[in-house]
């Protein structure tokens, strides 16, 4: 869709989206399952998207490959009102990957070129309109585990449904990666939501051609540690880098990392709630 037609389409269409950054651990899942139905109603939400690649700890002995997704968590979150679940570098950590990636509401980074299960985007009908959710990953998040196609090249090679609003979860480490893609795709997509760092960025943007953009939506997970993980692992590695040590999740209150954007009003805001006392913003 051209920039001009996207602008006209956005002004005519009502769409309020609630987007959650990385969900870290099952305590966060439990609280989200409780709160999402209320948030959908209170904020008149049409579509809920959540990044859930860190939702479970699958291998506590391996911090860098020990998270993932389970079918039970997928069921609980979708029953609570999540419409699409996105991923990242931990999408394939858990042992039941084939079954998880076959779920119709799951996407994973499409520009990962390894022979791995899953789809990079899905299209669904929301309030009578088509919305396409695309999952991309940057080299900084893929690291040495995965081979990737350039995110823009992957995006350009896809055939999306005509008149579909496109929302991208871009899973990457650096603001420059995310800003670069946002400038290139401004006016071609409804929103680009940055995930992966677990650190919510202060600024929320609507770019000149009306694309919503956040460099990182932030974490939904426990505070009091390092990006949702307990301090013990990191302290041990500082003192004895080669010693094996399991990791655990942080012990503190939950922090909320979510934004709401509305294409009719042009508003983008952070979601805050008193039930999440670890919220930093």
Automatic annotation (TrEMBL):
Tree of life domain: Bacteria
Entry-linked Pfam families: YmdB
InterPro entries found in the cross-reference section: Metallo-depent_PP-like, YmdB-like
Sample GO molecular function, one term: 2',3'-cyclic-nucleotide 3'-phosphodiesterase activity
PANTHER family linked: 2',3'-CYCLIC-NUCLEOTIDE 2'-PHOSPHODIESTERASE
Protein name: Metallophosphoesterase
Organism: Adonisia turfae CCMR0081
